[in-house]
Input
Amino acid sequence: MTEEKILARLQNCPWQIHVAAETDSTNSVLKRTSGAPHGTVLLTQRQTGGRGRLGRQFASPEGGVYLSVLLHPKAPPEALLHLTAMVAVAARRAIMEACGVEVQIKWTNDLVCDGKKLGGILTEMLTAEGRLQSVIVGIGINCNTLPREVQDMATSLRALTGTEVDRESLAAALIAHLYTMDQVLLTEKAAWLLEYETACITVGKRVQVLRGEERRLALALGIDENGGLRVRYDSGETAVVTTGEVSVRGMYGYV
Ligand code: BTN
Output
């Protein structure tokens, strides 16, 4: 994978694209260089310290697409609660366009196909003195390899399509859709969240809402205007659960 090959597949996107052979985590690299311009994109062939939500590892061997983009949005953090949901929609559109695979979303940030995890999203906000400095959006997708550590609950684009994935085309599609997302982040939120809700396999399911040691059973009702999950607990009480605060698991298995 090279910058040139990605640029050759990308039109009308002014973002700066860099490809590294190896990094600890593309999100961590952009955190360390967060003064770089809005739209700095970093891809890597493999990560030695790929990170997921809630401090989990994200296995990142050669053969996947690992991409992060640095943004400096002109909005306060509370106006960007829906960002991860919009990134999921952008990633879903890109995978359909580049590979013809219909992806579903497991609230909040997992890309899923055939009931297995195809990839994930890690959004991190950097603030200073209560003000938002930057946002780092990271996406990891299993393309041509399936990490040994996650074989039971994960899948890859190659396993789904039966053919080798052109990672540069997928990377270019991801960048193009993230660029569009950035343009409409504050103006087209409702339409994107509707698409998210339609693609979200969590909605309509019985779920366990995990908050620390506490576990409550609920029915997932839908997605609210900030990307939160609307639930009705078995006690009858309704609530919106937000990412970072809780993790939501299906009743049986991964989804
Ligand atoms: C998750 O599954 O919880 C999120 C996984 C996000 C992985 C991507 S790969 C590119 C970027 N760099 C990281 O260390 N994480 C994200």
